[in-house]
Design brief:
2 domains; binds fe (iii) ion; binds magnesium ion; alpha/beta; Nucleotidyltransferase, domain 5; single chain; binds adenosine-5'-triphosphate
Length: 335
Amino acid sequence: MKILAIESSCDETAAAVVEDGRKVISSVVASQVEEHKLYGGVVPEIASRRHAEAIVPVVKNSLEQAELTLKEIDAIAVTYAPGLIGALLVGVNFAKGLSLSTGLPLVPTHHLRSHIASNYISNPNLKPPFLCLVVSGGHSHIVMVEDYTKMRIIGKTRDDAAGEAFDKAARTMGMPYPGGIALDKVAEDGDPFAFKLPRPTVSGSQYDFSFSGLKTAVINLIHNSAQKGIELNKADVCASFRYAVVDCLKTNFLKAAEDLKVDKLVIAGGVSANRLLRSSLQEECDKHGLAFYMPEKSLCGDNAAMVGSQGYYEFLSGNIASTDLNAFATMSIEL
Ligand code: ATP
Ligand code: MG
Ligand code: FE
């Protein structure tokens, strides 16, 4: 079964053709990041306008690269939540029009479920159940993936997402948006123990995260030093901050796995590209005899291949939308 998938939840306009949820036939991603960089973050109205301009060429391109016509496609999957509402509406309405004109079934797909599904592409043998750490620009969840379309939230952030914390810390150090990627690179040359940063915990829930205190601590460290005319070693600041964030993520994730007696661990979302998160979780899992899976780096950020993968399993479970499908800025991954 071949699915044409469309993604427009944030600042990437993307389309892909995926076969049986696992095989990527084509994948096209048009990123707007260079334009949003000018403003230090995503400007919602600009994002919507760029999606409107890019959606037709991007979808056409994905079909051309797949050497397929719409007649050879079996269903259309589209991201309908969560994300920037004006951005989502572009993809949803385009997919609805395409579904109406071709008669193909329309499969509404949840963006975070798709991030998880990127792992089905990178790890052909991976099957639920497993415990997944979903860490992205807007979310930080520990999710029990009981089946392809059945999920239970075990823990989540009470304030900032991990990606957001990385981006804000990086911005304070003058790195361009999205700074998480640059911060990760600079941290490679630093000492993770150079600065002592807090490990905020959430009272009453041992699996929930809190990153705003940690973010504020590093921002204060940078500002206070600048005021005093002290020049900090940037690599050391990046390394210490990255170590602290990864430590928080790892601690709760591994604790949840132990308590739930799960022996299959998976990571997903933009932050799952983080080098330290990948290497240290791999190390911990090897040490404790746990299976560990991650998406290839090119599938960690937003793309439509992952939508085509999750869309396949949503289709199999009977999740088909009618033509009144709407977009939603927020929606639980549990649905
Ligand atoms: P969401 O998926 O929650 O709706 P989003 O789609 O904007 O949000 P993603 O595209 O999944 O987010 O991920 C982008 C985030 O990942 C950014 O915050 C970015 O800084 C972060 N990120 C990407 N690479 C790395 C890295 N190597 N280390 C740390 N953070 C990273
Ligand atoms: Mg993006
Ligand atoms: Fe995302």
